[in-house]
Every structure is written in C-alpha cells, then in structure tokens.
Amino acid sequence: MATNTIIGKHPIDLLEQVGRAGTLKASVSMSAMAGRKIESSFERVRVIPLEQVPDLLGDPEQVIVSGILEVQGDITGIFMLIFPLEDALKLTNNLSGNNAASMEDFGEMEHSIIAEISNILASSFIYALEEVTKEAVWPSPPSVVVDMAAGILTAALLPLYEQGTDILSLEAQLKDDADKTGVKMILLPNISSLPKLLHSINSVG
C-alpha cells in the first residue's frame, strides 16, 4: 500500500497514481489504434529541478524524436514525449510495416505515427492528472521534431530557465509483441501554473 512519501511539496504516491492511470488509458487507446494489443507500463515518476532535465537524456548529441504539446486550461505549460531515434523507428516500423532505418528515412508516415502516439500518451496522462487534481486541463495537437537532444531541449526549456521551476518527469514503456520501446514524458508547467498544480496535488494528499 502506498504511503505519502514527500519530495519537497510533492506527494509522490499521488503522482504515481497519475502514472498508473495514464498507462492504463494509453494501453487501451494504443491497442485500438493499432488493431492489436499494445501494452503500456509505468516505470517511475520524479519531480526534479528544470536544470536537471538534460541529465535525463544523457548524450546531448544523440538524435531523439519528440512529440511536443501545449498544455492548456487551469494548468498551462508544455508536455514533451521523448523517444530515442532507434526506438521511434522500431515503433513506427511495427505499426506501419515500413523499414525505416535512419533519421533520413523518418518521413511523413513516421511523423504521423509519432504524432498520434504522442497525442494518445499525452492525453492519457494529462486527463489522469485532471482526475486527481480536479483542474480542467487539455493538450493541444502535437508537433513532432527530430533533432539532437540539445537542440530540442534548448528550444523547449529556454523560456522557462529564468523562472526556476520544477518539472514532472514520467517514464513508461510500450510493448508491441516482443519489442519494447522506452519513452520519457516531461511536464513543464509555466511558473504561474506551478503553485496551482502543487496546491491541487497537496489538497488531495
């Protein structure tokens, strides 16, 4: 049974509840999209300072595929989904029947699949967060970017650096038959939304 373990002001057990609920929603939606069973498993959740986000990805020169959505409503900010290029290619190949093998092969079909997956995963976790916090929140349509990690993160994080905010990091795994694909999800709340988010989570806890 979960206990109210606190990191700063963040009750981790409630954030884990969001993670588990989000993966369950995502599994149902992903399976419906693919026409076969796709499992989504929750790995862990962390609340970390913004400046530690680059450490989540390791090598800043590695190529990643990112789905980026704007979070709107009572809580605003950015929701990012991050796939290593190899995992993104494996996932899109499995779903499309293509045989893309490099960044140069990442075409319109691959972008469309990652956009749909990003929409499903982000919506699942954001709506799970909405159920826990009772705040009205929804995602914008996703944009998909393929680039080095440093470039993507700089563009997304730079507007927030001076605000000194924390971020919510979720890690999940997708399983399609024997293949497993890792994905990191990052919620970057705007500074005006952070107190509201923390208050809502603490009120539940």
Topology:
Blueprint: E1 6-7, E2 10-11, H1 12-34, E3 38-49, H2 53-57, E4 63-73, E5 77-84, H3 85-96, H4 108-133, E6 137-139, E7 143-148, H5 149-157, E8 166-176, E9 179-189, H6 194-204
Antiparallel strand pairs: 1-2, 3-8, 4-5, 4-6, 4-7, 5-9, 8-9
Helix pairs in contact: 1-4, 3-4
What are the defining features of this structure?
single chain; 205 residues; alpha+beta; 7-stranded antiparallel β-sheet; two-stranded antiparallel sheet; 6 helices; 9 strands; 42% helix; globular; disordered N terminus
Description:
Helix content is 42%, strand content 32%. It is built from 6 helices and 9 strands, in the order E-E-H-E-H-E-E-H-H-E-E-H-E-E-H. It has helices at 12-34, 53-57, 85-96, 108-133, 149-157, 194-204, and strands spanning 6-7, 10-11, 38-49, 63-73, 77-84, 137-139, 143-148, 166-176, 179-189. Strands 3, 4, 5, 6, 7, 8 and 9 form a 7-stranded antiparallel beta sheet that branches. The protein has a two-stranded antiparallel ribbon with strand order 1-2. Strand 8 (166-176) and strand 9 form a beta hairpin. Helix 1 (12-34) packs antiparallel against helix 4 (108-133) and helix 3 crosses helix 4. The chain is globular and about 50 Å long. Residues 1-10 have low confidence and may be disordered.
Summarize the structure.
The protein is α+β, with helices and mostly antiparallel strands and about 200 residues long. It has six helices and nine strands, in the order E-E-H-E-H-E-E-H-H-E-E-H-E-E-H.
